[in-house]
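Before anything else, study the sequence and fold tokens given here and see whether the fold suits the sequence. Record follows:
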Amino acid sequence: MALILVRPLYRIHYHGRKNLPKGAFILASDHISYFDPLSLGMGIRRRIFFMAKSELFTAHGSFAAGFLRACGVFPVKRLSADKQSADKALMHLARGRIVGIFPQGGIVRGKREFSPKAGAALLAARAGVPLVPVHISAPKGIAPFRRIDITAGEPLYAEDGSLRAARRLNERYIAAMRIISEESK
């Protein structure tokens, strides 16, 4: 239903779809608007199970929380080691699904430096799945009839499930996001 309503209004261009693995992976994207999960989902055409801040499930009432859960969104307590949400993400990955994470922890507008937290890389290393860097670019802002470019980079892999490997994966992820961002200008 969302596709029917949204697709004609937004000029979304997808690049790098060939980089998306067939099985389980973590889609790790920058986050520039509330529209990002919908625009990512429209381009990938597979269900993405997004992590979202727990406040979305508590601050907007039970209807909103139920709607989010029905869409496959699950809560994460930010700024903590949320074992319950990590276990949920690992369960989805074990079932061959895509887990969507915005590693910066929230919407970042403007020209601030990309500084992700390491949780997405840690989950990818623990699950033994690729981490796919995704950059969203909307130079004129997110609004109807304005161009949005979504670029998926090549999948990144951790050498093993260790914390050290996860840190190295996160460093490679940051470097890949910088390259994708520069190329999309």
About this structure: The two ends are 32 Å apart (CA to CA). Helices lie at 2-6, 36-44, 55-58, 61-70, 83-94, 119-127, 163-183. Residues 163-183 form the longest helix (21 residues). The chain has one domain: 2-183.
